[in-house]
């Protein structure tokens, strides 16, 4: 990521500002669904400086901002899925959507990269429905530390979700509708046992920039290169280390995976231009590959032979996972990339870029992309393939999640729309549930969608 952007975000975080308070100059945080901010989402009537009515303003404001969940049955009956009371506002949902499309500012390191791709790439018509709304809980309040890093939400089952909320990793159960704190970074965290290379003294006040949860392991990466690992079934922190002492130390992304021998490993992408692989059985650094630019995301191929590496360069790389040598350079994007994901077949993979496109590549012919899929308002910050390979999902910085049919060569698409910045998207391991973290000062929530089946079945939540 660009140094000036990184430093600006770090300064804001150090000052204790919420991500929603970032200035427009920070790129992708310019419009809030916020009745407090004097935006279009204010109630009717004579508004004061804070948008409230005189006299009965407090009651009116409470009605607008009260925390209420939304079920599938309520949504079918006409309730807004986010609980936004459009009937009491001075603007309709349709008009506010139009305003967002016109006003949202996509952050670009290369000016007009998104506008150019808008002209070159035609949007696929949204005419399919693969996932349908199931539930929205406003008890969960996801957060974002750095506006370019959006891997802060993970589902380990169709009922269990882990997410960042300010300085705490939380867990939400869609069965019990209960939220619990898993790991609090506001104070001191330290490992319970000694391991080679482990920072026994631990860390204080870690600012978590990225999160990964898989294979029973939770790993948090920090702004200063911290790596904190914890088993989901254990209370204590398992392992702590600082991956780098570089000034450009932000941990940008992590990929938890199994080696060909079955051992648990994590691949870490860092702003110091390095990709590191750790063995989590022995807590040892196995590989450290260096590149010519900050690495924003790395994903490991299903056969563990290749790495898809993207970062502060227009080109993506295919890299031999054994020695770090570049096997292919993929040309086509016009800006920096922050997301990648492999199709389960191990032949195709996708990259997400600030030029507002997701490109799909084939390792057998990396000279050109198989498909160029466009977003609506901003960079492609997070990409997921379904475990069966039928769907490719990606999210923009705000408002939109796109679901493409990989089985139909990416020619069919579902568009899921709402309002708010996106902390991350995650599919459950069985692909039945899709979760979306929404960051907003008033309407922060966790959206839950379920896969549509031809035969259908009764709602789990009424």
UniProtKB/TrEMBL annotation:
SUPFAM superfamilies: WD40 repeat-like. PANTHER family: GAMYB-BINDING PROTEIN (PTHR43991:SF21), WD REPEAT PROTEIN (AFU_ORTHOLOGUE AFUA_8G05640)-RELATED (PTHR43991). WD repeats lie at residues 330-371. Gene3D superfamilies: YVTN repeat-like/Quinoprotein amine dehydrogenase (2.130.10.10). InterPro entries: WD40/YVTN_repeat-like_dom_sf (IPR015943), WD40_repeat_dom_sf (IPR036322), WD40_rpt (IPR001680). This is DUF2415 domain-containing protein. Pfam families: WD40 (PF00400). It comes from Triticum aestivum (Wheat). Residues 21-37 have a biased composition (Acidic residues). Residues 13-59 are annotated as: Disordered. It comes from the Eukaryota. SMART domains: WD40. Keywords: WD repeat.
């Amino acid at each position: 990521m660009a140094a000036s952007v990184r430093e600006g975000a770090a300064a804001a975080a150090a000052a204790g500002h919420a991500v929603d308070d970032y200035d427009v100059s920070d790129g992708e945080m310019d419009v809030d669904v916020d009745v407090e901010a004097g935006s279009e989402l204010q109630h009717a009537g004579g508004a004061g400086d804070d948008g409230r009515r005189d006299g009965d303003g407090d009651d009116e404001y409470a009605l607008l901002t009260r925390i209420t969940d939304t079920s599938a049955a309520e949504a079918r009956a006409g309730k807004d899925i986010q609980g936004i009371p459009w009937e009491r506002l001075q603007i309709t949902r349709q008009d506010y959507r139009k305003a967002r499309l016109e006003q949202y500012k996509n952050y670009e390191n290369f000016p007009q990269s998104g506008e150019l791709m808008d002209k070159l790439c035609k949007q696929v018509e949204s005419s399919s429905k693969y996932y349908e709304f199931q539930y929205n809980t406003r008890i969960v309040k996801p957060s974002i530390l750095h506006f370019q890093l959006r891997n802060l939400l993970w589902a380990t089952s169709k009922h269990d979700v882990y997410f960042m909320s300010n300085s705490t990793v939380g867990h939400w159960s869609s069965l019990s509708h209960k939220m619990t704190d898993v790991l609090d970074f506001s104070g001191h965290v330290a490992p319970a046992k000694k391991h080679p290379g482990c920072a026994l003294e631990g860390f204080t006040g870690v600012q978590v920039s990225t999160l990964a949860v898989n294979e029973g392991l939770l790993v948090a990466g920090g702004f200063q290169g911290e790596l904190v690992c914890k088993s989901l079934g254990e209370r204590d922190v398992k392992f702590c280390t600082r991956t780098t002492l570089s000034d450009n130390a932000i941990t940008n992304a992590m990929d938890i995976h199994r080696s060909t021998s079955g051992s648990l490993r994590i691949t870490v992408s860092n702003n110091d231009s390095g990709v590191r692989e750790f063995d989590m059985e022995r807590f040892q650094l196995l590989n450290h590959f260096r590149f010519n630019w900050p690495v924003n995301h790395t994903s490991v191929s299903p056969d563990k032979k290749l790495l898809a590496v993207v970062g502060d360069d227009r080109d993506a790389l295919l890299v031999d996972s054994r020695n770090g040598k570049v096997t292919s350079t993929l040309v086509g994007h016009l800006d920096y990339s922050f997301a990648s994901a492999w199709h389960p077949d191990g032949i195709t993979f996708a990259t997400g870029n600030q030029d507002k496109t997701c490109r799909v590549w084939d390792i057998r012919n990396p000279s050109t992309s198989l498909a160029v899929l466009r977003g609506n308002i901003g960079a492609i910050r997070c990409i997921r393939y379904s475990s069966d390979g039928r769907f490719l999902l990606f999210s923009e910085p705000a408002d939109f999640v796109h679901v493409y049919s990989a089985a139909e060569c990416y020619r069919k698409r579902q568009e899921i729309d709402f309002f708010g910045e996106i902390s991350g998207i995650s599919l459950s391991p069985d692909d039945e549930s899709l979760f979306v973290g929404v960051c907003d000062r008033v309407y922060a929530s966790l959206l839950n969608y379920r896969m549509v089946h031809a035969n259908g079945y009764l709602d789990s939540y009424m």
